[in-house]
Amino acid sequence: MMRIDLLGTSFQIQSDEEPEYLEEILSYYRDRLQEIEETVATRDPLKKSILAALVVTDELFRSRSEGASSEDVGEIEEIAHRLLQSIDEILPEPSP
Known about the structure:
Blueprint: E1 2-6, E2 9-13, H1 19-39, H2 45-65, H3 70-90
Antiparallel strand pairs: 1-2
């Protein structure tokens, strides 16, 4: 289990990935969040999180077009998908 603290929210995820790798991913995402916080005026944590996710997704798509091996990209996508599923299972459903 790994505890994640982001934007005032704390939760734990379980993954088959090595803890060091998960820490590296989390550190990378925190860096993107910091960039968003420095450039965007919104205080809404959900909006900041979405913007950071879009930045990371843009980087993934650009790396694909710049010739990253499809095997590497596929592995990255699979890891990201599993992590997102873990997060979705933990986070409460939004109220209507």
